[in-house]
Amino acid sequence: MDGYAIALVFAVLFGLAIGSFLNVLIHRVPLGNSIVAPRSSCPHCGAPIRIGDNIPILSYLMLRGKCRTCRRPISPQYPIVEALTAGLSLALFIKFGPTLQYLLFFLFCAALEVISVIDLHHRIIPDILSLPGILCGLAAALLLGHVSFVSSLIGAIAGGGILLLIAFAYERLTGRTGMGGGDIKLLAMIGAWLSAWSLPLVVLIASLSGIVTGLVFIVTSGQGLRTRIPFGPFLSLGAVIYLFFGPLITRWYLDVLS
Prior knowledge:
Layout: H1 3-28, H2 58-62, H3 77-96, H4 100-122, H5 127-144, H6 149-174, H7 181-194, H8 199-221, H9 232-257
Helix pairs in contact: 1-3, 1-4, 3-4, 4-5, 4-9, 5-6, 5-7, 6-7, 7-9, 8-9
């Protein structure tokens, strides 16, 4: 096995390990609990998770998705998050190689992943994730130079401003609150990381994917227009797609126009 192949394996293992930690964040951050102590435990019986039962994905398969102590089912969210994080780590390593850019954008994608799952479960986007994420995006612009600091700053301001205007207009027209402050701060974070130029495409992807998903849920849930779907996961999806394919999509769109 050559050096590059070994590096790819390391990227996957690194992603699996971080994915396991992301599950801790997803569970504890909304509750305001410490992410350091106590040790992870079964959410049903409270039995501490053994070290040998905490191996990403593998332990879930060996235990057949059940707690060793009480035999009640473990949420499939745990191996899904671990596998997704490993996939993101591998894709980012292939794109950027063993660079600071890989590490920082992995941090960005991991934060989006945690935010998305928390938003799906609790319909909230914690400020403790989005606000430091804005600052980290501005710092990344200075460290990496992938975008100018001015563009990053404008992206943060414009990202928050766009959704703030949309939320204000929706509330004025319908008399209902349609978008939370968490979504506004999340788009500001995305703008800080990816620059102001990314925002139109990110919002477009998020809106289209959100509309399609919303229509499916409206039809299948039986709740009609009362169905409420969090927007954070779709903004995160738009950001990740832009990160990997933004320039390619933009060139294709300009070619179509011309």
